[in-house]
Q: What sequence folds into this?
């Protein structure tokens, strides 16, 4: 009986080991795929002419942009000055504990650097990347704007593009390589965020199918 118990235990441990190995291999493969997609999106992200440039919000320090947000705004400023877009749409709501929205901070920064206020559109309610794009799409429709440049840090572009495509937006990414943020950390966060996004999308489709069945 002791021999049978040991044999059963070995089989169980072997199966657990195989399952863990498969999970690890699948996780590494999935992460590697999205890391590759992030790189591919960065390589393909070149400026194009569009109706508007959407600047995705980031952290606000006090009543001014954080160094990271300033990098996005400087990229947007260059695109506007070089004639790629006639309008800039700044998107970002009120952060926790903040007194001013990200959009207002971005508008003030851009106007202080020479962009006329009438060339800046505000979206002041978004609290995440998906809302940035969804609410910006609504602003674009209100102003009869059809295509956009999505302006953000390079590591952020792949997720933004996936979300924009899910909304049916005509948009091209333009990224800035950060000099103030630690790239590997933020890329890892993006892989996790993309994983969460894909899971929620799959779950939504599955529930929708079940409801219609």
A:
């Amino acid at each position: 009986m002791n021999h049978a118990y040991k044999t059963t235990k070995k089989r169980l441990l072997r199966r657990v080991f195989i399952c863990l190995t498969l999970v690890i291999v699948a996780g590494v493969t999935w992460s590697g795929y999205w890391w590759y997609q992030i790189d591919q999106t960065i390589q393909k992200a070149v400026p194009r002419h569009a109706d508007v440039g959407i600047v995705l919000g980031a952290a606000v320090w006090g009543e001014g942009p954080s160094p990271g947000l300033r990098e996005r705004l400087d990229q947007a400023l260059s695109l506007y000055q070089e004639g790629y877009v006639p309008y800039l749409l700044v998107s970002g709501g009120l952060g926790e504990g903040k007194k001013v929205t990200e959009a207002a901070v971005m508008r003030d920064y851009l106007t202080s650097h020479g962009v006329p206020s009438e060339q800046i559109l505000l979206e002041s309610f978004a609290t995440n990347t998906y809302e940035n794009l969804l609410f910006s799409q609504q602003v674009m429709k209100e102003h009869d704007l059809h295509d956009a440049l999505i302006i953000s840090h390079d590591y952020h572009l792949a997720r933004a593009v996936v979300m924009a495509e899910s909304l049916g937006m005509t948009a091209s990414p333009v990224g800035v390589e950060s000099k103030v943020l630690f790239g590997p950390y933020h890329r890892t966060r993006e892989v996790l965020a993309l994983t969460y996004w894909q899971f929620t999308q799959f779950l939504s489709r599955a529930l929708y199918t079940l409801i219609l069945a």
